[in-house]
Amino acid sequence: MIEKETLLQEATAILPWLIDVRRDFHAHPEFGMEEFRTKDKICEYLKEMGIPFEAGIANTGVVGLIKGEQEGKTVALRADMDALPILEQNNIPYKSTIDGKMHACGHDAHMTVLLGAAKLLNQNKHLIKGNVKLLFQPAEETVGGAKPMIEEGALENPKVEAIFGLHVDPDIPVGKIGVKYGQMNASSDTITITVKGKNAHGAYAYMGKDAIVIAAQIISALQPIISRGVDARQSAVLSIGVIHGGTQGNIVADEVTLVGTVRTLTPEVRRSVLKNLEDTVTYVARGMGGEAILSIEPGYTSLINDDDMVDIAKLSGEHLLGEENVKVIDVPSLGVEDFAFFAEAVPGAFFRLGVRNEEKEIIHDVHTPLFNLDEESLKIGAAMQVYNVLTYLGRG
To answer: Is 323 helix (H, G, I), strand (E, B) or coil?
Structure first.
């Protein structure tokens, strides 16, 4: 096993390179399934390191493989690649060069950390008892690249038996990490409700079936699905974010469309909420003389960490950073993360990497135009992933 001081020194030595890599990614953001330049740069870096890889997995994904000098299991590290449709407002030399596109969720850092871990692991192959797969995944923010990567064999040949991932966290100071046992992120489902009524002149509303009134009743009826249909000790959210309907102020609308999201933490609650949602939508509309059609677009599954894998990440953090710099997160997030599909396929741990620095005014949340991160976090993330890998493989 590599000594703590040696690993931190090696990670510090490559920090200038990590910063250059991250800033290049940041200046050239690309949307999900459009990460072609990003893919090419990743391949270029892996080629420079002498690490074999396969590109074009799930369209723009890249899978690298480091073979250790000793036989053993295979563990994977994952980073997402895509940017967000946000106009950056930071005044920095490496500001996004593409208006309306920004790495506002830290995926530029995620890729950089993985490349840094790859560099450190590759120069310490004599310590690796097995193999390390490097998964650069597209489209976390949109269609979700994890599932198609799995379907295209990213976890096979050699078969991956465990996986680690991380996400930057602007609520955690740089130099610290956060770990969460068990449930970490929610599942998501997009719902579309099409309410059908009957047109009539507004002066003779009784001759129609007002789709707007029906839609309003449906929206009101949805609220008890959560407040009365879900155990208060559980968590679930049902939100309607879009309403479209009507043509004129004096015409009773014959159709209204509602679009929203459902977030749940367990498969049981997910099934229950969606079933109650379907019943409510159907029968409220029918009871008012109209019709409502519910369409459910399944999103990401719940991210559930494997406790043994979290133990490894926690111990790695305590060893490298000190026990006082490892935060155990108490409650899960109702945000979603498609690392969940990897963690569903093999035991996994997803942890939070602190990037906040109030002295540098790095305080803004992800998915905002002013998001930034303290680049000291890059060496910490890389060292953490190296230690996670060596610890896992060292257990045999």
So the answer is: helix
Sequence-separated (6 or more) residues with CB below 8 Å from residue 192:
257, 258, 259, 294, 295, 297
- Residues 134-171 have pLDDT tens digits of 999 999 999 999 999 999 999 999 999 999 999 999 99
Q: What are phi and psi of 160, to 5 degrees?
A: -75, 135
φ/ψ of 346, rounded to 5, equals -145, 160
* Rounded distance between C-alpha atoms, residue 42 and residue 194, angstroms: 44
3-state secondary structure 85-136: CCCCCCCCCCCCCCCCCECCCCHHHHHHHHHHHHHHHHCCHHHCEEEEEEEE
In the chain, helix, strand, coil percent, each to 5?
40, 30, 35
Whole-model pTM?
0.94
Pairing of strands 129-137, 70-80: parallel
Give the span between the Cα atoms of 218 and 184, in whole angstroms.
31
Closest to 245 (Cα-Cα) out of 180, 179, 292? 292
Cβ count near 333 (within 10 Å) = 18
Kind of pairing, strands 326-328 and 177-179? parallel
Tokens (6 digits) for 388: 């996670």
CA–CA separation, 386 and 18 (whole Å): 15
Q: According to DSSP H, which parts of the chain are helical? A: 4-13, 15-27, 36-49, 107-122, 146-151, 211-227, 267-287, 307-321, 339-345, 376-394
**Secondary structure (3-state) at 378:** helix
Q: Which residues pair with 263 in a beta bridge?
A: 188, 237
Contact 349, 200 (CB under 8 A): no
CB 247 within 8 A of CB 253: yes
Tell me the torsion sign for CA atoms 85, 87, 92, 94. positive
Write out pLDDT tens, residues 318-369.
Answer: 999 999 999 999 999 999 999 999 999 999 999 999 999 999 999 999 999 9
- 214 neighbors 256 (Cβ within 8 angstroms): yes
Alpha-carbon gap, residue 19 to 14, rounded angstroms: 9
Instruction: Check if the beta carbon of residue 302 is closer than 8 Å to that of residue 183.
Output: yes
User: Are 348 and 165 within 8 A, CB to CB?
Assistant: yes
